[in-house]
C-alpha cells in the first residue's frame, strides 16, 4: 500500500479495538471514521472517533542523501546474479493527524480517554504499518503532540452535551523515490473504438501515454 494510504489504514486499525460499557451494553464498540460522519451518508451513533489529516511536513532535520548498499542479500529486492543492490535513501516526512472522540455519556468519555492515552503514550508511541513496510511486525514512531478537552453544550437550551477530546499526533514516515515513480496512475481517458467485428471496444489510456 502506498505512502500515506498505509498510515491511514494503520491508524484506523490502531483505533478499531476501543470499546465502552454502560447499563445497556457491556461491550459497546466505538466507531472510527475519516472525517465527521455525514448524517446523509451514515448513521451518526455515539460514541465515535474521527481521523483527520492536518498536514504533511518535510522532516529535513532527519533527512539524509545518497544510497544504501545491500550486500547481505536481505534487502527488499530479491538477489539477482549475485550482485550488490543499491537503494536511494527515502524522503523523510512527518504526518500530522487529529484524532477526535465524541460521546454523550460521561462514563463513555472517561473510558475513551483512558484507552486513547494508552494508544498514544506521549513520546513513546508506535504504529504498526505492515501494509507499507512489508512485514507483520513493522512499526513507525508516533508522538502525542497535544491533547485538548473540548466539551460543548448543544440543543435549544444547551441541554445536550457533546463530550469531545482532541488528540494531535505525529507519525514518522518516509517515501522512497522508487515508490513515487511507480505509483499507480489513474485513468485519464477512455477511448471507444470499433473492432473488426464492428463492435465497440473500450480502451483506457493513462495521461503519460497520450499522443502529443
Explain this structure to me?
This protein is of the alpha+beta class. The chain has a single domain, classed as Myoviridae tail sheath stabiliser (STM4215-like, 2-Layer Sandwich). The protein has 4 helices and 13 strands. Strands 3, 4, 7, 8, 9, 10 and 11 form a 7-stranded mixed beta sheet that branches. It has a two-stranded antiparallel ribbon with strand order 1-2. The longest helix is centred in the middle third of the chain and has 14 residues. It is elongated, with a radius of gyration of 23 Å. The two termini are 32 Å apart. The C terminus is likely disordered.
Beta fraction of the residues? 35-45%
Number of helices: 4
Number of domains: 1
The count of strands amounts to 13
> Which radius of gyration do the C-alpha atoms yield?
23 Å
- What CATH calls the topology is STM4215-like
**CATH homolog superfamily:** Myoviridae tail sheath stabiliser
Shape-level CATH architecture: 2-Layer Sandwich
The overall average pLDDT, rounded, is 79
Helix content: 10-25%
Q: Which CATH C-level class is it? A: Alpha Beta
Which structural category fits the helices and strands?
A: alpha+beta
The largest sheet is: 7 strands, mixed
Gap between N and C termini:
32 Å
Uncertain ranges: 205-212
Query: What characteristic shape results from the CA principal axes?
Result: elongated
Oligomer: single chain
Annotation keywords:
single chain, 212 residues, alpha+beta, STM4215-like, seven-stranded mixed β-sheet, 4 helices, 16% helix, 41% strand, elongated
Topology (elements, then pairings):
Layout: H1 5-15, E1 19-20, E2 28-29, E3 31-34, E4 48-58, E5 67-70, E6 85-88, E7 91-103, H2 106-119, E8 125-128, H3 130-133, E9 139-149, E10 152-154, E11 160-175, H4 177-181, E12 189-194, E13 200-205
